[in-house]
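Write out this protein's structure.
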Amino acid sequence: MDKIKIPEDFILGAAVSAWQTEGWSGKKEGQDSFLDLWYKNAQHVWHNGYGPAGATDFYNRYQEDVALMKEIGLTHFRTSINWSRFLTDYENAEVDEDYANYIDNLINVLLENGVEPMICLEHYEVPAVLFEQYGGWGSKHVLELFLKYTEKVFERYGDRVKHWFTFNEPIVIQTRVYLDAIRYPYEQNTSKWMQWNYNKALATARVVKLFKEKKLDQTGAKIGVILNPEVTYARSSAPHDQEAARIYDLFFNRVFLDPSIKGEYPQELWQLMDKHNITFDYTDAELEIIKANTVDYVGLNLYFPHRVQAQTATWNDEVPFHPSYYYEKFELPGRNMNPHRGWEIYPEIMYDMAMRMKNEYGNIEWFIAENGMGVENEHRFKDETNIIQDDYRITFIRDHIYQLLRAVADGANCRGYMLWAYSDNVSPMNAFKNRYGLVEINLADNRNRKLKKSAYWYRDLIHSRLLDIDSEQVYK
């Protein structure tokens, strides 16, 4: 076994979000988020009926959780502020003092225990009333309300929080709702999808501008965005497959990477939007704001590779345009799979994405904001001490961090690794079906917490700053 030294300033933390952990305790009438709205209208599609209502009860048990974070030794912890709960009046940005005090206390307890808070302003938590009244992020009025909310948050916590992010995975909600129509309210509308994409990119630039105006950049704080680019591989070297991968990358990766980091959209994307009549509503002044207010750094959520090939079927012209007009998924024969989640395991995505950030995006500072392995029925792996022996998760984390450290050695400006997740938590639809946490949430025992084997392994890794890796290829 070889030992690889982990840089002392390399983040080794973990993440969750507000809506996936807090629960509805203390939530007031009219404070539903989009996720709450979906859950209330389609509870039957959430695994075994679990959802954001109970979640992990983090709202009441955060001190217990922070104590476990300290025991594990997490250097950083990321969560979100639930926009829908932070305010009681979204138009006038009136703060809910009960919820705001909870966030105050959480930040203070984290800092007191040596855990650096990383705060995301929106992790799918757009208020339900703004979704119903204005169409959510399809509306530029909602963008203005988001800025009012953000200003209140900066004023309240800007003295303590040094890591800020506008969105987590800003492409996801509209992709599921308006592009693929697989989530409530199930509307296939590609133009709405693209407008949401643009308005969120503009919102990020506007928040960066506000961040500077508030002089938070002079306090040592940084502002970024957390994206989920899917590292895309073509089936073959043939031009038609390479083109399929390039177009997939334009629509799903560069649509946020480029405006956030480079301050502009790819010319090819403009051409494709115009060709298919899905160009978003914009002004030249807005594009100038995007150009002048790029992010300080980015978090990247990487879980699996995305493989595509050229489209092999004739397109149905009665169907609204979808980027899959140009591609279809390709399943690599013999791929290593997580059978529980249905995702390919390919740690090399870390290295390949790192080299892309270095070579195509100016080697901007970035880190892994999410990476993890979801497994069903983990109670099967409990030993006589009642600890889940999740060696599969340890292997997964080790192999992905190894690829990151390879990239760092080759000059990538990657500053850390955040595991998804600190604890088991609710996921959209899957609820608690697939468990991701270092910490078990026992639903049968009052949601009580218990460290898994991976938590002890992660603790040792953080303490030693040495990664054991078997670098010798064994031919069988």
